[in-house]
Design goal:
This protein has eleven helices and eleven strands. The protein has about 300 residues and is α/β, with parallel strands linked by helices. It folds into three domains: about 70 residues, Arc Repressor Mutant, subunit A (Orthogonal Bundle); about 110 residues, D-Maltodextrin-Binding Protein, domain 2 (3-Layer(aba) Sandwich); about 100 residues, D-Maltodextrin-Binding Protein, domain 2, CATH 3.40.190.290. The longest helix has 29 residues.
Length: about 300
């Protein structure tokens, strides 16, 4: 029977070994002797009554049980690091690291203003920012690499993994350049729009999934884009050079890269998009992260569209 108590030091040893895939390299990184590390792994396997690694040509790799433990080990070590950082931040009241994940629209609007205000009041803060689309950011949140994510509300509402706090809403619409053949037309049918050429983010992104769901609900086949990329900057710049349709937020036309694009009037494809702060559960934010989140909420309170 597995021991319900796990030594945190053994979990740290396991995590480093799993990440590096090599006991020798892990021992060097941990500054311990290789036999010591091997015995520590054996002890952890004994406590759990399950094998955690198998050998391969290059070192070791996790078993299915080890892979599951790795997910929890990352979260536990992140929470322990959060606890240490919170204690340090409470001691001086002004320092601390904030790790934010942000969707494309937030990188250009609202978040820069909120971070600037936070640093102006607390210059000892350190902010790291990861950008991208939804799935990668939520994975970083789940792994403990991010304190919070500011992005579109998950379709599941967060389920049992996340807590969500509303910040803004916007409409998802079809856009293109002013010279696009559909730009001068009104009340375009979905079928007419879908016959055009499209460029879209990957299928796992919420905007793409919403578009596909909307199209299917109308009895049509989703568009087959000629370009698929997770770079919104590329999509916006490309749309200015080519007769392509994008599916994005209306507020994208408020930023420099999107200011020369126009809305293509396809009413039946338009839908709403709520966005906000997403936290991993349980919600354990450091004072520094709480402060930046508070600033972002204040910025959005004056203009809840992004």
């Amino acid at each position: 029977m597995a021991n319900s108590r796990i030594d945190l030091r053994l979990l740290t040893y396991f995590l480093k070994t799993a990440e590096l895939g090599n006991i020798t390299k892990a021992a060097e990184a941990l500054n311990v002797a290789q036999p010591t590390l091997s015995k520590a792994i054996q002890l952890l396997e004994y406590q759990l009554d399950a094998p955690l690694f198998v050998r391969n040509a290059h070192g070791v790799e996790t078993t299915p049980i080890g892979a599951r433990l790795l997910r929890h080990a990352r979260l536990v070590t992140a929470q322990v690091a959060d606890a240490v950082e919170e204690i340090e931040a409470m001691r001086d009241g002004s320092a601390g690291q904030v790790r934010i994940g942000a969707g494309p629209s937030w990188v250009r609007r609202k978040l820069p203003e909120a971070v600037a205000e936070a640093l102006a009041e607390r210059p000892g803060l350190q902010v790291s920012l990861s950008t991208g689309f939804d799935e990668r950011l939520l994975q970083g949140l789940e792994d403990g690499a991010l304190d919070f994510v500011v992005a579109e509300k998950p379709l599941s509402g967060g389920g049992g993994h996340y807590d969500y706090e509303f910040l803004s809403d916007d409409a998802l619409i079809v856009v293109g350049r002013p010279q696009h053949p559909l730009a001068s037309r009104r009340q375009i049918s979905p079928r007419q729009a879908l016959e055009a050429t499209w460029a879209l983010p990957p299928q796992h992104t919420l905007a793409r999934r919403k578009l596909d769901g909307k199209v299917i609900s109308l009895g049509e086949a989703p568009p087959d884009p000629v370009i698929v990329t997770d770079s919104q900057t590329f999509l916006l710049r490309f749309a200015l050079k080519y007769d392509i349709l994008l599916y994005t937020t209306r507020s994208i036309m408020l930023i420099p890269e999107g200011s020369d694009l126009v809305e293509i009037d396809v009413p039946e494809l338009a839908t709403s998009r709520a966005a906000g702060l997403i936290y991993r559960r349980p919600k354990l934010l450091t004072p520094a992260a709480q402060f930046v989140a508070m600033k972002l909420k204040a910025v959005c309170g004056t203009d809840p569209v992004n």
